Amino acid sequence: MFGLGMPELIVILIIILIIFGAGKLPEIGSGIGKGIRNFKKATHDKTDEIEASEDTKKSEDDT
C-alpha cells in the first residue's frame, strides 16, 4: 500500500488527530467515503455508457 507501514500510518493518524481533533474525524471519514462512492459511481456509469454505445454501433453495423 504505497510503501507505508504501520508506524507511518500511526504517525499520520496522530497528526490528523492533532490538526482536526477527534470530533471532526467522523465527518472527514464520511466526506471521504461519499467522495469515493461518487467517483466509483461516475466511472461505472461512464463504463456503462461506453458499452451501450459500442452495442449500438455493432447493431448498426449488422444492418
Task: Annotate the secondary structure layout.
Elements: H1 6-20, H2 25-62
Description:
The longest helix has 38 residues, at 25-62. The N and C termini lie far apart (49 Å). The chain has helices spanning 6-20, 25-62. It is built from two helices and no strands. Helix content is 84%, strand content 0%. The model has no long low-confidence stretch (mean pLDDT 85). It has 63 residues and is mostly helical. It is elongated.
Short description:
By secondary structure, this protein is mainly alpha-helical. The protein has helices at 6-20, 25-62.
Shape: elongated
How far apart are the first and last residues' alpha carbons, in Å?
Answer: 49 Å
Structural class, by secondary structure, is mainly alpha
Total DSSP E strands: 0
Q: Please write the string of helix (H) and strand (E) elements.
A: HH
| Uncertain regions spanning at least 5 consecutive residues | none
Quaternary state of this entry equals single chain
Overall pLDDT level: 85
Fraction of residues in H or I helices: over 70%
The biggest beta sheet is recorded as: none
Query: Count of helices?
Result: 2
| Percentage of residues in DSSP E strands | under 5%
Rg is 21 Å
